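This week, think about what follows.
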Amino acid sequence: MHSFLKAVGFSNLEGRTEEEKLMNLVIENASERQVAKLTDKRSAVEMYMEVAEGVGIVICGEYDERGNFHTEHYFPILKGQNSSMTEAVYVNKRVDTNAFTGMCDDYRVGVSLIFYVQNRIDLLNRPIPRRDRTKYPISLTALSGEGKILLPVQKTKVETERVKADLKNRSSLIAEAKKGNQEAMESLTLDDIDQYALVSKRIRTEDIYSIVETTFIPYGSESDNYTVLGYITDVRECVNSYTKEKLYILSLLCNELSFEVCINQKNLLGTPAPGRRFRGNVWMQGRIELLAGEAFQ
């Protein structure tokens, strides 16, 4: 059973029997179907059933030469409403299923961002890129199994502007360091030393979350799982139309990267509101907006 089913409102499923009932429900009530031809006798297919606005379940499988459908895997999904970034992206096929992960370098995050690709049919219909550095719009979303609401850090307008300027400068230094700029590497090293000394001094009298405003770091052994701490810019409430469980869709700003997170109300500690912060472990998803008429190769 998928670990993040509860994030989209299916927290009470128990056992394989109930899971199969849900899969049959998706197949019977799918509002969207997409197909990609694999061979003369096989076709990949995706079926999507919406349970709330932008939230649903996707079943992936194949049609054989007789037209019979065979389920391969499924996943819960939150569809993004806005583009989070425009970057060159590397796409890799997963070893266990006919699915893909995308990876791109975003210097605001500080790590190579890896996400589960939502629109795999688009990639199956076009050649997979190898050394293509074309930048594509990417809509990022995430599902969270549990999270907490934290109060914001009180800052003046001057302090806020200084933080933005420092982040922009650090992103530029990281970009230069990746090109081999020795001065940029030394500057980043000195900045890290200064930050470590400052944090070590402040941690004696302050809470860690008053020092660290936002974070975006890998979590666990899965490459597309992260621990995030970000500011909430918008809150949307919705209800799973089948289970009647309440969901929150939070718009987050984390290290100047914006994306949406879906979480079950049962699994969120605290009341979300714009200006407050969200902390939780998330599974990153993304949709690569391929340019019309252009092969992804």
